[in-house]
Every structure is written in C-alpha cells, then in structure tokens.
Amino acid sequence: MTSAATARTIVGVIGNVISFILFLSPVPTFLKIWKAKSVQSFKPDPYVATVLNCAMWVFYGMPFVHPDSILVVTINGFGLLLELGYVAVFFLYSDWPKRRKIIFVLLVELVFFAVIVFVTLTFLHGTKSRSMLVGIVCIVFNILMYASPLTVMKRVIKTQSVRYMPLTLSLANFANGLVWAAYALIKFDPYLLVPNGLGALSGLVQLILYATFYRTTKWDEDGSTQSEIQLQNHDRASSNQV
Predict the structure, then answer these.
(1) 46, 78, 112, 134: which one has the fewest Cβ atoms less than 10 Å from its Cβ?
(2) What does the DSSP assignment read for 214-228?
(3) Nearest to 54 by CA among 99, 88, 20
(4) Distance (Å, rounded) from C-alpha 24 to C-alpha 238?
C-alpha cells in the first residue's frame, strides 16, 4: 500500500514538471506582446478558456471534493495564476473592445464556477457524489479543448505538412497525458483517466503524423496566420494539462 502511494506521488511530481513546462509554452508569445506593446493579431481565447479549466481542476482536487489529490491542486493552482497573468498582459495591451470581451467572458466563467461550487457544497454530501459532478464537468471541458489539436491534425493530413505541429509540443503532450493517466490508474480515478488517456492518444497520433509527413513538409511555405498558429498550439498545450 505504501509503495503504491509512493509510486503515485513520484508519478504525480513528474506530471507536475511536464505540465509546468507546458504551461510556460506561451511565454514567447507574451514576450512579443510586451516588446511590441500591442497584442498584434494574437487572440485571448485560449488563455481565458484555460483559466476556467484550471479553476475547475483545482476545485476537483480539494480534499472535500476528491481527497488525496494535492498534486492536481498544485499544478493547476500554478496554471491558474499563470493563465491569469497571461490574460492580464493581454488585457493591458488590448483596445477597449477586446478588453470588454475579456471582462464579459471572465464574468461568465466566474458565475459558472460559483454555481458549480454552490451546487456541489450545498446539495451534494460526500466526496463520491462531489467528485462525480465536478469530475464530469472537468472531462467535458478537456474534451472541448481537444477541438484545436484535432484541427491541427486535420490540417497536417490535408496539407501533408507538419510545419505548424511542433515535434516538441507533440512529445510533451503525449508524455503529459501518459504520466497523468498512469497517476490515475495507480489509485483509480476515472475523471483523471479519461481526459489524460485521450490526451496520450492524441499525442501519439500527432507523433505518428509527424513521422508520416515530415519528409513531405515544405518548411519555407507560408501557412497559417500568426494568430491561428498561436491559438492552436496553446490549445494543444492546454488540452491535456491536469
């Protein structure tokens, strides 16, 4: 029993490290924004969406919702703070229409999160039922965030080019999903296993596509716009973080 708990902790720490690196992947984008004092053609959508995703996983990992999930709380707590920082930078260098959109979406997310917390703590008694509700919501959010990786994979197949599907990001997503899926299996947690199992599968398919179409890639061609690439790659990084 102790050995299983130790193994789970070790795997969880490894998962924290990989997820930490993935959360830092947008830093170059925000360095560009900071230097230019403008958001240019970049979009805030993935960062605002990840704020709610991280908040939900932090709540899921609370001991009164799903006990023994401190490592889920630590990485998503860090991710939440970092994503809020990204949103703050974006807000600072955006014009008023974009700022208004950010404020509106954040308020909607706050209301939704507050409703989930209220319902969970008021009407559900016991960690089993609480884990089920919050876990299902987290799974739904993660699956929705897989839309962007699927779009990228579809483009790779259509263009026979992996130019906008970085190998390092695909490897990191695969490793991240695999490690957190293993974490969920050691002490069975279906709500962690489903999104991260899908994340590992998604990462594996990306690696297979990379190996298949690497030789046919024309690296000097123009492709997606800057904002499209940024949006898709951040969503790819965010989709299987737990």
Answers:
(1) 112
(2) STT--TTS--S-HHH
(3) 20
(4) 10
| 204: amino acid identity, one letter | L
Helix and strand counts by DSSP (H, E) for the chain? 10, 0
Q: Taking residues 212-234, what's their average pLDDT? A: 64
Residue in the structure block whose two tokens are 């940024």:
230
Distance separating the N- and C-terminal Cα atoms of the chain:
24
Q: What is the pLDDT of residues 33-89, one digit of tens each?
A: 999 999 887 888 889 999 999 999 999 999 999 999 999 999 999 999 999 999 999
d(CA 186, CA 80): 26
Among 156, 165, 194, 152, smallest CA distance to 177 is for 194
* Region of residue 40 (phi > 0: left; psi between -120 and 50: alpha; otherwise: beta): left
Q: Which amino acid is at 55?
A: A
pLDDT digits (tens, 9 = 90+) for 93-124: 999 999 999 999 999 999 999 999 999 999 99
Whether 199 and 111 have beta carbons less than 8 Å apart is answered as no
Quote the tokens at residue 60. Answer: 């899921």
Which tokens belong to 115?
């409703």
